[in-house]
Amino acid sequence: MRLTLLSVIGQLTVKSAEVGRLVDPLVIDSSKIRRELGWTPPFTMEQGLAETAEWFQGSGDRA
Predict the structure, then answer these.
(1) Does residue 63 lie within any of the structural domains?
(2) Is 29 domain-assigned?
(3) In Å, how far are 8, 21, 59, 61, 63 from 3, measured between CA atoms?
(4) Which DSSP letter does residue 25 get?
(5) How sure is the predictor about 34, in pLDDT bands with cuts at 50, 70 and 90?
(6) What is the pTM of this model?
(7) Domain ranges, residue 49
(8) Mean pLDDT of the chain
């Protein structure tokens, strides 16, 4: 409901692009850098997420 309300407010205030940046999903496409530079990521998304989750679980001293 909030996303819909924010979208309507954005349209009414001519700020729909700004609201979209806040509520739309983030999509990242690495195909251009892979194609033009031959770059490959050092690990898969799954590996990165697993490592990040492990780091958060082991960081009990966070403020």
Answers:
(1) no
(2) yes
(3) 9, 12, 32, 34, 30
(4) P
(5) very high
(6) 0.45
(7) 2-58
(8) 82
